[in-house]
Amino acid sequence: MLLWIVLLNAALCVASGNVTRDVCKEQICSCNEIEGDLHIDCEKRSFTTLQHLTGPSSQFYHLLLHGNSLSRLFPNEFANFYNAVSLHLENNGLHDIVPGAFLGLQLVKRLHINNNKIRSFRKSTFLGLDDLEYLQADFNLLRDIDPAVFRDLNKLEVLILNDNLISALPINVFQHVPITHLDLRGNRIKTLPYEGILEQIPGIAEVLLEDNPWDCNCDLVSLKEWLENIPHNALIGRVICEAPTRLQGSDLNETSEADLCPSENPGVDTSLVAPPTQEEISESRGPHPTPYKPNGDASGPPTPGGHHGAKSRSKSRENWQLKTKPTPV
What we know:
Largest sheet: 10 strands, mixed
Organism: Nibea albiflora
Strand order of the largest sheet: 2-3-5-7-9-11-13-14-15-17
Oligomer: single chain
Shape: elongated
Protein name: SLIT and NTRK-like protein 1
Number of strands: 18
Helix content: 10-25%
Number of helices: 4
Radius of gyration: 28 Å
Strand content: 15-25%
């Protein structure tokens, strides 16, 4: 009778889909130790969900899920992988992360969600990632970022957002976030204010800003001054002006404040002065007038430099490596 009850319970569990399978014990994934760290390689296993799978409960591990079909992550998606210290979700066609998807991953220090189709970061997108230090989200379709999305990630140091569709960062997005490395290359950013953005990342060690359509006007003076005053050993990407036309192709570092704010530096704009008439020339030069000839160096916008297309981004970020092993309690 007892055996029958056990078998019935097992059958009910299977029918209800509550049975979890250990990805290592059942060899669903490749599990190998590399330099003392367990790597669970589940690359290209056609997974659409992970809710009926589980990882080892007795040791920490890196969970590699590249190239699956995890297009949407639901709440508690990783509840059975609580010993993961890093999570790779590249190339999954991922377009939606439902708040609560990362609950239970309080030990994860590195999250890689690059090369997907993510369009927005909502307020609670990263809920549960209390120890996150490294977030790689480049090569997505990211446009909208909630100002509070990183607010509880008070250990986040590296943020990689290059090659997205970001036109502006929300004010106070880095409040209480200790960012040291920030990659914003290849977006649609025209300006980056000091108040509410730059002032909140005083410990920056690397900031990459290339390949954005920078609008070099008065609003960019604060960025110019900030870049000039951050530590000399910090790595800084070039800010190349796309607008206005007269500064197109210019390096912000080599552009003066007077160039950025001509309206605040009054003077005669000779490009707007009409050429003298023949009568005016005759009166000024006496009986032997010299015919007026248009200046061969007529003022006008400089010839734009070569097109700054999207540069290939290095997949290797060896200089941004962070500790990934949590200290056992």
